[in-house]
Design goal:
The complex is a heterodimer of chains A (210) and B (308). With 210 residues, chain A is mainly alpha-helical. Chain A has one domain. Chain A has four helices and two strands. A two-stranded antiparallel ribbon of chain A has the order 1-2. With 308 residues, chain B is mainly α. Helix content of chain B is 75%, strand content 5%. Classes of the chains: A mainly alpha (210), B mainly alpha (308). At the A-B interface, helix 1, helix 2 and helix 4 of A face helix 2, helix 3 and helix 7 of B.
Chain lengths: 210, 308
């Protein structure tokens, strides 16, 4: 089918008499973006201060376990911040999608048309899945950093063990960031699809109302 | 009036609003390539665990460069998809311009006074004409392309330096230049994304105004929301921190004992990116707020038929 004959029926849609409002992920996005954002804005400066403390510990000749533990704590806190900020970004994208879904439905309802709502596209499903995977990966890596810090400072883990853990966790963290960024790309791609659907649908409303 | 510069920020006059966005598909392909690149570095990192001495240091050096390049590719993909959003926003606005005159009700006699009015979505400015861009919009429209381009270049140069670093470990200078350059590039890329979001906010504001003006009604424009103001401050601060960490790494590149400096430069570079990301989250929130207001305004127009 050529684009010049595309109608809203060519999309996977739900048809209803009333606007469907926000779906569950969008409701969650509306409620949770702010706490996530606040958490990130607290974690970043905390990690920076810890980094400065560690730098001073190195310059001051503190013990190697202390320096290793501080390194793990700094990274753990910093990546709690990244987990939170990526989550805030993802929830903000879900919130935008929610405004399109709710507003689009209300406008159709108002003009007396049947309400056509885009079903959750595959890109949105990948967005949610990727977000969950990225969040869990980063969060688990951050927690393990804090556990390793506790172990190395208590002497139950050797310096070599702490170093190996740092290399492993760095790999996992980086993969988590890549997955999260990829998920955000899919979330934004969903917005492009919704905009296209609405551009088509709003012109159809004229025929319905006349 | 549409300026020549603005024309390049809008789709062609004959663009088909029904056609799928090629920016969307290109962005998704680029994101996939970025994920593959980051996965290669992930495998390299795991291999490094089993290595020792120079071999391990060498592997960690090139995986650093490759991972950051993977991130940069995905961020570029995000910028490409945002460009697709910008183009589709204009096409949707064109559809609204065509449809809304036929959907509005009987014209109402009373009109809002010019100035400011309260709405469920905060204070809005009421004017007769569509508003012009704010200074931050003008800056965003000019800056997003150079920021993305310079950011990508810095990351790629850093990647090349990381290969030099991998071949000559321990090499403090190459290590410092790789980290400084690549995180400056990441900061610039994120700033480019932030400027693109600012451009999208401009497009929503301008298109919303133009739709109302074309109907002959009073133009309601939301005042710059607090998240948008905080977004600008965080983005600027984050970019400055990214530049500062680069300067720090350049200074440390000549040092014979960089360990203590690396201990605070690492968190500093991540702090800079964190600030820009926090700003980006607020920009997305501001976009959601403005869209919610626009739907409210369209419904108001359809219900009341308010015309000047």
């Amino acid at each position: 089918m050529t684009s010049s004959t595309t109608t809203s029926s060519d999309f996977a849609i739900d048809v209803s008499t009333k606007g469907l409002g926000y779906n569950r992920p969008q409701q969650m996005g509306r409620k949770l973006w702010a706490p996530m954002w606040v958490m990130s804005i607290m974690a970043f400066p905390t990690a920076l201060i810890l980094g400065i403390v560690r730098s001073n510990a190195i310059s001051g000749g503190e013990s190697e376990p202390t320096i290793a533990a501080l390194g793990h704590v700094t990274t753990g806190v910093m990546f709690i911040g990244f987990t939170a900020v990526f989550t805030a970004v993802s929830f903000a994208i879900a919130r935008i999608l929610g405004e399109f879904r709710k507003g689009g439905g209300e406008v159709q309802e108002l003009v007396g048309s049947e309400v056509r709502t885009l079903k959750m596209p595959p890109t949105a499903k990948i967005f949610i899945l990727g977000m969950a995977m990225g969040m869990m990966t980063l969060l688990i890596a951050s927690i393990i950093h804090l556990v390793v810090a506790a172990q190395v400072s208590s002497g139950s883990l050797s310096l070599a063990g702490a170093e190996t853990a740092a290399i492993n966790l760095e790999a996992v963290r980086r993969l988590g960031v890549a997955v999260y960024l990829g998920a955000i790309t899919f979330g934004l791609a969903t917005i492009v699809k919704v905009l296209r659907f609405q551009a088509i649908r709003i012109r159809e409303l004229v025929q319905v109302s006349s | 009036m549409t300026s020549t510069a603005d024309v390049r920020l809008k789709p062609a006059a004959d663009a088909d609003y029904r056609a799928p966005s090629r920016y969307r598909s290109r962005g998704l392909v680029l994101a996939f390539i970025g994920l593959v690149v980051a996965s290669i570095a992930f495998v390299g990192n795991l291999v490094a665990v089993g290595q020792t001495g120079t071999d391990q240091a060498s592997t960690l050096a090139w995986t650093f460069g490759v991972t950051t390049t993977g991130f940069a590719l995905i961020k570029t993909a995000i910028a490409v998809v945002l460009w697709g959003i910008l183009m589709k926003l204009w096409l949707r606005a064109d559809s609204i311009k065509v449809a809304l005159p036929k959907l509005v009700g009987t014209p109402a006699a009373d009109q809002a006074a010019l100035g400011e009015v309260d709405t469920p979505y905060g204070k809005v400015t009421v004017t007769e004409r569509a508003p012009g861009p704010l200074p931050i919009h003008k800056m965003a429209k000019k800056m997003f392309r150079p920021m993305v381009a310079m950011g990508l270049m810095a990351v790629i140069v850093g990647l090349i330096v990381s290969f030099v670093w991998a071949g000559s470990v321990p090499n403090t200078a190459a290590s410092a230049w790789t980290q400084g350059l690549q995180f400056l590039g990441e900061g610039m890329l994120l700033s480019g994304i932030a400027f693109l979001l600012g451009t999208i906010l401009w497009a929503i504001r301008t298109a919303g105004g133009e739709v109302q003006e074309s109907l002959g009604v009073r133009v309601y424009t939301p005042k710059m929301p607090r998240p948008a103001k905080a977004f600008v401050a965080l983005m600027m601060l984050g970019l400055m921190v990214s530049i500062a960490q680069f300067v720090g790494y350049v200074v440390v590149a000549g040092s014979s004992d960089p360990v203590a400096a690396f201990a605070w430069l690492g968190p500093l570079r991540e702090f800079g990116l964190g600030l820009i990301l926090a700003g980006i989250a607020l920009a997305l929130v501001a976009i959601g707020n403005v869209l919610a207001f626009q739907f409210y305004r369209f419904q108001q127009l359809i219900q009341t038929g308010e015309r000047s």
